[in-house]
Write a structure and sequence with these properties.
The protein is mainly alpha-helical and about 120 residues long. The protein has one domain. It contains three helices and no strands. The chain is elongated and about 70 Å long. The relative contact order is 0.07.
């Protein structure tokens, strides 16, 4: 009888790994197969594994980028309010109200995107 191990191909001896499995819809599986073929990866399973590993390693980067984007949005909102007021087209109260309403609506979209990516 053949000896079974939890070591995967290319893994150094003594480093065991665990198998993780998940199901995909047929349409998602076809897409994975197409992408694997386009990337010249022999197995869609290997591509799925690589996508998961890459995603786990990139997660902290997404959080960092989300923080930078939020700071940029705040800077643009401040600059917009100043420009509207200095141009003399609206009062400072109207400029503040417009910026708050406009940028708040978009901030909610970004927050939901951050939650989805987390």
């Amino acid at each position: 009888m053949a000896k079974t191990t939890s070591r995967t191909r290319g893994q150094p001896r003594g480093t065991a790994s665990r198998t993780i499995g998940f199901r995909l819809k047929n349409s998602e599986l076809r897409l994975l197969e197409q992408q694997a073929a386009a990337l010249d990866i022999a197995s869609p399973h290997e591509l799925a594994r690589q996508l998961v590993v890459d995603s786990l390693r990139e997660a902290p980067q997404w959080s960092y980028l989300a923080g930078i984007i939020q700071q940029l949005r705040e800077d643009v909102a401040t600059a917009t309010e100043a420009l509207l007021t200095k141009a003399g087209k609206v009062s400072s109260q109207d400029a503040h109200k417009w910026v708050a309403e406009t940028f708040q609506a978009h901030a909610l979209d970004i927050e939901s995107d951050q939650d989805r990516l987390a």
